[in-house]
């Protein structure tokens, strides 16, 4: 039932938003791949992507976000898609929609709310909360900072955190903060629409999830070198 409710809610939001917007301000398609990268560390090299596509104007948007990855030479093992209606107020876009986990748990679907915002000209932030069809509440947040070095070269540190309101056995997590990721990317802007970058990514389990991982003999943290490309439509 939650599946139908989520889809119905999103469709209703889209219809309500589109009618006045189309009549006044034309909608345009924008977006692209923020991250398309190869990560190398202990074990297999990993391909990872994160892309966002938006159809709308400065106030109302329909957004598709896709992310995933997997070891090179093997099957991609993580893929998810998020479909949002977004409403921009000032420097903040409020989001409502659904998240579909295509791999590894193809049946999982989540009602999703979130926000994306900017602080000044250099800080960007994102925060999301997910309610699964099993009633599990989880979420994630990310802060991105851009530090110019030259007109084309800039540093981009990122800090991301994941959390869970309860322990989820299937996901091997405990309540509280579950994981963190710190990244330092050095990007070079080739054109206004294309950039290339190198980076270092540090991932680690946190809190009770880290203690559970230690008991189960899982890797508690990893450090990876990265090369990648980003591009816009």
Secondary-structure map with pairings?
Elements (H helix, E strand, L loop, with lengths): L1 H23 L3 E13 L5 E11 L3 E12 L6 E12 L2 E12 L5 E11 L3 E10 L4 E9 L1 E2 L4 E12 L11 E14 L4 E12 L1 H9 L5 E12 L1
Antiparallel strand pairs: 1-2, 1-13, 2-3, 3-4, 4-5, 5-6, 6-7, 7-8, 8-10, 9-10, 10-11, 11-12, 12-13
Label this structure with key terms:
single chain, 233 residues, mainly beta, Porin, twelve-stranded antiparallel β-barrel, 14% helix, 61% strand, disordered N terminus
Overview of this structure, please?
The structure is a single chain. This protein has a 12-stranded antiparallel beta barrel with strand order 1-2-3-4-5-6-7-8-10-11-12-13. Residues 1-23 have low confidence and may be disordered. The chain is mainly β and 233 residues long. A hairpin with a 3-residue loop joins strand 2 (46-56) and strand 3. The chain has one domain (2-232): monomeric porin ompg (Porin), CATH 2.40.160.40. It is built from 2 helices and 13 strands, in the order αββββββββββββαβ.
The level of helicity is 10-25%
Q: From the helix content, strand content and strand pairing, which structural class follows?
A: mainly beta
Proportion of residues in extended strands: over 45%
Cα-based radius of gyration, to the nearest Å: 19 Å
Number of helices: 2
Termini gap: 36 Å
CATH fold-type name? Porin
Mean pLDDT: 89
How many domains? The number is 1
Major pleated sheet: 12 strands, antiparallel, barrel
The parts where pLDDT drops under 50 for at least 5 residues are 1-23
Oligomer: single chain
Biggest sheet: strands side by side, in what order?
1-2-3-4-5-6-7-8-10-11-12-13
Shape: globular
List how many beta strands DSSP finds.
13
């Amino acid at each position: 039932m939650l599946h139908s409710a989520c889809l119905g809610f999103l469709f209703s939001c889209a219809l309500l938003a589109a009618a006045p917007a189309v009549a006044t301000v034309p909608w345009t398609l924008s977006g692209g791949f923020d991250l398309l990268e190869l990560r190398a560390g202990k074990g297999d090299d990993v391909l990872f992507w994160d892309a966002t596509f938006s159809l709308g104007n400065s106030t109302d948007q329909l957004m598709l976000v896709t992310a995933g990855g997997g070891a090179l030479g093997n099957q991609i093992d993580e893929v998810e898609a998020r479909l949002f209606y977004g409403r921009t107020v000032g420097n903040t876009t409020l989001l409502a929609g659904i998240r579909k986990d295509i791999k590894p748990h193809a049946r999982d679907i989540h009602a999703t709310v979130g926000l994306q915002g900017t602080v000044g000209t250099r800080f960007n932030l994102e925060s999301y909360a997910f309610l699964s069809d099993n009633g599990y509440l989880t979420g994630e947040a990310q802060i991105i900072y851009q530090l110019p070095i030259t007109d084309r070269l800039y540093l981009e540190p990122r800090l991301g955190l994941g959390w869970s309101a309860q322990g989820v056995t299937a996901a091997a997590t405990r309540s509280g903060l579950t994981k963190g990721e710190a990244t330092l990317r050095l990007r070079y802007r080739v054109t206004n629409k294309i950039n290339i970058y190198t980076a270092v990514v540090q991932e680690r389990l946190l809190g009770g999830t880290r203690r559970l991982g230690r008991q189960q003999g899982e890797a508690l943290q990893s450090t990876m070198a990265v090369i990648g490309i980003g591009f816009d439509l």
